[in-house]
Amino acid sequence: MARLLGILSIFVLLVLRPATASAPPCTTVSAKLSSCLSYIDGHSTLPPSDCCAGVKEILGQATSKPDKIAICNCIKSALAKLGTDVDPGRVSNLPKKCGMSVSLPPITKDYDCSK
């Protein structure tokens, strides 16, 4: 009987434990943040609301250091593909401009995301 309760307890813990989130793939990061381009490249003073929704969703998935590094590398890769220089201050201020208390490093195409 004790053995059955032990097995049942383990089963319940496995079933009821919260699912662990992982970093989204780069295609998702790029898609969610594509509407931020007008703000990042300096063409608008505020990011659009769909940009902020994407920022909140992506940063909400950055729950561990490996997730944060992966998302940073996705952003870095996307910036490199733009082919234009971007003000790193605009990238790092994006969450703040969207009303979030999270901060981003000044990510550029040369930034070391492992830091």
UniProtKB/TrEMBL annotation:
InterPro entries: Bifun_inhib/LTP/seed_sf, Bifunc_inhib/LTP/seed_store, Plant_nsLTP. It holds the Pfam family Tryp_alpha_amyl. Residues 1-22 form the signal peptide. The keyword Oxidoreductase does not apply. PANTHER family: NON-SPECIFIC LIPID-TRANSFER PROTEIN 2-RELATED (PTHR33076). Residues 26-113 form the Bifunctional inhibitor/plant lipid transfer protein/seed storage helical domain. Plant non-specific lipid-transfer proteins transfer phospholipids as well as galactolipids across membranes. May play a role in wax or cutin deposition in the cell walls of expanding epidermal cells and certain secretory tissues. It comes from the Eukaryota. Belongs to the plant LTP family. This is Non-specific lipid-transfer protein.
